[in-house]
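We emphasize that the prediction below concerns an isolated chain of 287 residues; any contacts that depend on oligomerization or on bound cofactors are therefore not represented. The input was used exactly as deposited, without trimming of termini.
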Amino acid sequence: MNMSTKCYREGVLEDFRLRIFMAVAEKGSFTLAAKALGVSQPAVSQNIAELEKSLGAELFLRRKGSVTLTPKGAAFKEYAGRILYWYTATEMMFGPEGKLSANKPIRLSADGFIASHILPQALSKLLAFNPSLTFSIRSESSGNNSDIRIYAQRHVTEPSFEDIGTFLFSVTASAVSSNPAYSKTTDLKDLPQSARLAVPKIYSEILPLDLKARVAVVSDSAEAIVKLVADSPDIIGLLPHPATRQDLITLPVSLPSLALDVHLQTPEGPNPIATALRRILCDQFPA
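Result of the prediction step, given as a token string:
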């Protein structure tokens, strides 16, 4: 047996061993796990014993007819689930579909604040996992001509079936200023007449009428709003929270009407890169 064959077979064995572990954890029984996997019960027992030996930890408490996870087993289950997910993602990325995707830039459309403040960390993780990928990031308006579309829309409490399928997470809004005099303002209605608002375009469409009258600047660029706020003491910026900056003052106001839901769509059908990106983003911004 040459080295490459040996390594390949050991990798498959590790993959299968993790699947055995997950089956036992879910079924609560070596016998039921064996039936679900189509293997013998002794094979299940042997693989679990070897896994526990290699980890140096007892993963299951054995009782007559059933097993339960130990605290270490429960902790390992979380990691095992993630490992198996990435095994699957690897197969998709480096299989026929993945190779096809890697041969051309992945067209990704995103809202301005998403492209600047949410995507960079997620794409960094994805590229670390598969450096051969390339992305072409476009404005959200070109979404229908993209492989992956990530967009924000007004938060809804009763989403449609379609929205449930594309939903990633919700983003709250923050009011920021460079003026210490506004640091204790709890209601934007209490701001002096000289104070004006700078808002992203998506907020301009959903602002209450009394606040719309205060808007001085509407921009697609969160960075432009942040710079304007930093340079202008009478400008209050309303921004999705990930787009705020630590050196600015966050006013203690509640802006529930400006909450946004972030969604991921694949206009041309499911693809493995989108699946991996969805998982990374959901881990990055847990619901």
